[in-house]
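COURSE: Structural Biology Practicum
ASSIGNMENT: Worksheet 4, Part C
STUDENT ID: 0417
INSTRUCTIONS: Below are two proteins. For each, the amino acid sequence is given first, followed by its structure token string. Answer the questions at the end about the second protein only.

PROTEIN I
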Amino acid sequence: MQLPPTNSGSGALSGIARKGVFLLEVLVFGFIFPALVALGGSTNLLNWGPGLLLAGLCCLLLVSKGRHTTRGGVAHSICFLLFLGFLLIRARQSPDVSASANNSALIVLAAAGFLIGKLAGPSKSRALLTGLSLVAIGNLACTVMQMATPDWNLIYPQRTGTFPSGFFAHYSYSSAFCLGTAGLLFSRGVNDPTWLKSVFLAGAACAVVAIPISLSRGGNLALAFLVAIAIALLLARAFSTAKSLLSTWLPVFVLPALVLIFGSAFVPLIARDTGPAAFYADSVRFGFWEAAVQISTGHPWLGGGAGSFAWQVFHVLDGLSNEPGKTHNEALQVAVDYGYPALIVLVVLIAIPIILCFWRYVNKTATTATPWAAVGFFGNVVASRTPQVPADQSEDERGDEGCGSGVEDVFEVGLQ
């Protein structure tokens, strides 16, 4: 009996093609975070181009590859993307062309980061986090170099702050990046079965170390919250099976004390120029917050549009020598630009998965590694680094995009 002819040549070519596509995917996913850090920190949209292009390419490569999730996860994803769509529409309606373009680009990048985190499988996630780990390690090396040579910056020779900022143009952006990155890398590193486990944990450690060195007040306060919440979660999980009422409420009472302890420990480390006593004294920013509240009451439902604080602050504050481009409080920034309903929706979309994630960890219905991405993201929220680009500078997006896929991990774990 004559056997049918085999097509071994085409099969081999098909195998080579699949390997080529896989290698391309690994390279693209591994390079996106370094590219966003190196090229994404300018208000010039030509510099945003490579990051947006890579994010779009990642989404294209994942268009037919989703991960299993629950109905709650799907519903939350739809709500989150619809919310970003609303922000995009409002941003495009702003009369401030520069702020409109910057906010729009960041919103698109946030949506892409969410989708990438949602759809990426194990191999692509490892490629993503390998690139993120290398950025965290390099950022610490650059930060240490700036301790001896403050004017030196590998990417931004004329950076906007005098304190160590690593790869970033401002120290607050570096700390924002490190907060989300530390939780995400630690969460993945604990459970990763491959040799990349050490790379992820090294990146997480470098991200944590870089925060005190940055001298960022918000970043270090958030780090104190991060450490305190981690300890409180461990205590709550340890006592979760106890029947004593005290054991149930112990973490609740311990948490504020831990925040105060770690906060007072970090302050002497980052005394800056004014000393620990004046560490959190900032009357200028408090004045901006009061102005933001007054401005937001004039258009509470839909906000004044992207960048509206910058041109309206002069109506409520006198004697300003420079044009303040932002409120220095991202919750108030959202309220001023997009309205209080948008702020409430944003808080709900963030709070629900984080609370569910913590609750399931404490009740031992999730693995021991699941809450740490949520802890890092919560630290990012405490530092007030929710997605928003100020009108004068836009390095913020790298702090947010740095934990973009981590945000999705928190959503997925919390809603599973």
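PROTEIN II
(use this one for the questions)
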Amino acid sequence: MKEIIDRIIQKIVELLERLAQLIDKMRQAAEILLQWLPVYLSYLTGKIRDAVEAAASAILTFIQWAQEQLKWVGSPGQLSAAATTWLADVGQPSAQQSYLVDKTELEVDDHWKGEAAQRYVEVLPNQSAALSSILDNGAQPVADALNKAGNAIIGYWTAFSVALGAFIGTSVAAVVATSVTFGASLAIILVAAGVAFAAIFTADKLAVNQMDQAGLLIRGAEAKLRGQWPTFVQ
């Protein structure tokens, strides 16, 4: 999964760099054309120049923002692997050990008598229940939280990639149409950037919500374990 995401991200980075270069060239070309306008249109020329500069700068700012986000991809694969480890190395061994914490299974002197022996036998059920709860109330919720966090990352970058893909596609089409008018092309690209940003913002909110849910799962697991674990070992 990480390899696939990395390849997609790298391709997006390359396309964004290319698009930034094209926008800069459009700005330079517009400036050259404006220099050919008559002097008596200087007021209008200034207005056009300012509009082109503002639109190009806004688009380049969005591209730079997107490039910055792409530096923090995360690793859902590692989160999934950690979830598996929690179940295999923590939860399941603890559950298996809970069956051994039983009076009939302990390898102790059968002739051990007295108050200490009786007290020890009395706490065995609590020990067994506590060990058993590590899987259901501890390792499993933590694993679920890690998987939820990983899915949140995948969902976010999927939406991010789709949004930027649409933005890049629209922008390239607009660049091809620059022979008609620079202003219209830049306006189209600027609107596409706004649409892409809105989609990414929505995906970000969804991912944050899923991360919050993952945090609740972990805090809930901690509370359950504290309530289940015998007081004498807390």
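ANSWER KEY EXCERPT:
Q1: The chain has a mean pLDDT of 77.
Q2: The two ends are 40 Å apart (CA to CA).
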